[in-house]
What we know:
Layout: H1 5-24, H2 30-37, H3 41-44, H4 46-69, H5 71-91, H6 96-110, H7 112-124, H8 130-158, H9 175-181, H10 194-213, H11 216-235, H12 249-280, H13 284-313, H14 315-336, H15 342-368, H16 375-400, H17 420-449
Amino acid sequence: MTGSNPKAVAWLSFLAFFSVLNETVFTVSLPDIANHFGITPSAVNWINTSFILSFAIGTAVYGKLSDLYGVRKLLLLGLLIYGAGSLIGALCHSWYAGVLAARFVQGAGVSAVPALIMVIAARYIEPNLQGRAFGLIGSVVASGEGVGPVIGGIITGYLHWHFLFILPMMTLLTLPFFIQTLPGEPVKKGKMDVVGAVLLSIGIIAFTLFTTMYYWVYIIVGAVCFIGFMLRIRQAEQPFIEPSLFRRKTFIVGVLTGGILLGTVAGYVSMVPYMMKEVHQMSTSLIGVGILFPGTVSVILFGIAGGLFVDRRGYRFTMIIGLCMISASFLSISLFADQTPWLTSCATVLTFGGLSFVKTVVSTSVAGALSSEESGSGMGLLNFACFLAEGIGVAIVGGLLTRSWLTYPLLPTIIDVTASLYSNLTLVFIAAILIGGSFFLFVYSRLQKKP
């Protein structure tokens, strides 16, 4: 396995790009889809949320199963499921429920890719090189997230948004390469905690439904499932998530920080297309190419730089740089949301650049807190938490975009009343970034001082 790792990581990085691209490829098309089906932003955002939820759950499942069955079989299975979901979407694009189902199946399949590439990196790359490795992986993933809206905008603007389901099917062409590149691994004894996985999944879906519909029954169902899940992992012989992971403070800090910061940025990115259309009357294709594309160009450079900073200057320095970049980006939008749209384009560079730094810090700190035996479930849980937070962030923003009380003009620099909603939302994003970043810096500094 070790000898083939460079090839395996290279191929997985290629697939990781296309897997996360599909997470955001519908982002700029959501206003068009909402008009097509005659639905609200809170409803149409579920096209992204349904994908991200199954994507998040899948990363945890695949990470756990990799400890039992290895990466090759799981990766092939995931890609086949991904292709099936894409086919469903292409055939059922005129039916909103069919689109949601297709996105859910897509996420369940393609989540195998980022889950398994993180497992390979955590298991087989030397600790002193992990910062650079995660920086490279983070660059690939972040560039995929960034290019997604660009491709989505072009295809929707010049063709139709349902063609976005056909693009992912091209990944099936890579199956022969993976059969040759990834060697088979011996099956280990063990079993999957299906009950724990189901309880956690239902709890997550119920909580996310509450964030958009605000029905208390969902939060009650979610709380019951989460309590049942915690009891289950304490009693199960081979729990879905090892309880011992929750006793590793550095691990928990990294996971919580990643969830808060990545969820906030995902919510912000999902807001941008609505803001560009409503405030600046920009076309879908121009939003993708002109507003979001500049960030995608810079993200690879920032990701590699983040890996070098982590290895040479440490977590604290790199995290502070990333937080400052994201905060500066959000502040500029909050103050001048109704000014030239190209300000948002420049701010996107800072947002994605800062996100690359943050992701590298989180991945490296979490990997360093895990033993080799815990790498599969531990990195799977990290992926799960971050992607889950992104899905919840998108869902929450979809709900907030329909709230009239957020349209009250707060900042004197905002002249256009229409822009007040987006300016106020960005203030909320800034608060979330400061809370998440301060939590990491404070707790991690205290942990470092302990002998």
